[in-house]
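Reopening this ticket.

The earlier resolution said the output was attached, but the attachment link was broken on my side. Pasting everything inline this time so it's all in one place.
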Amino acid sequence: MKICAAAVVAVIVGIATQASAQSGDAARGQRVFNQQCRACHTLEKDGAQPAGPNLHGVFGRKAGTAAGYEFSDAMKKSGIAWDETTMADYNRDPKGKVPGTKMVFNGVKNAGQLADLVAYLKQATQ
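Inline output:
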């Protein structure tokens, strides 16, 4: 009985940890953005596009359609509509999600950092 109870507790802890990682923490995500994304992307409305597109208003937008940035044909043809899931999938492995993308970034491999980044982007790009 103790083994069964321990297994149930382990499953519950695993689910809670996964849910926590999926929900993300925007404050921690801001640090991830500043360390890994800010060199190429801005977030404010009508912000600059130094090496990548400005991300203001990205959620709900079709990939490759932001004005003022020359996207790769691969991104334009990707069919992606940006939401939390597609943003996480893309930022985990940009070249795997959209082969031929211009984005020169290997991705955020840590699930917690990725969830934090997406939470921050969802908040900061409105």
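Reporter confirms the inline version is readable. The helical segments are 2-23, 26-36, 73-76, 84-92, 94-97, 111-124. The radius of gyration is 17 Å.
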